[in-house]
Please model this.
Amino acid sequence: MSEGGTTESERGEPTSSPPCVSTRFARSTTGSGLPPCEELRRVEAGDVADLRAFLGDVDLTLSGLDAASVRLWMEVDDDGLVVGSTGYELSDDGAHALIRSVAVHPSARSAGRGSALARFAFDRATEEGATTAWLFSQRSGPFWQGLGFEPASIDDLASALASTHQVRLFAETGQLHREVAWTRPLP
Model:
């Protein structure tokens, strides 16, 4: 593991995404009150309970937060409390990303944080080779439309992302066809 939190290949090249917000992300949010790089970090095993409590408070899916296939980051305040999160799962072929767990604490909304967190997930998924983003959202359609998403077929989403934890869970519990699907090309 290198100092920046990335692993390196035998040739010394980074092989995973950074544990915090990239310089590009930080520059794009200057003046918005968003935290510096070190406050958005990759979720590790010891963070899952705090993230689960946060996502429960904002009424998002809690299942699979510790699954190896789920990539998650969380934003913390000066007291170490979770105030934002973002993440995704990739399809088996890596071409499709299921955006999930994008949330901002209610006291910090309407400052562009949600959009910045979503774009962070888009950028990381694109770096891993994804060309299409998908998500489930029953309540936040206008927010996602503002980021370029359009309504999509739930069957198309389920087909593209059949192996992801969230799709499998929703199919097993009968929730899948009660969801609303959205999609957009990446980047």
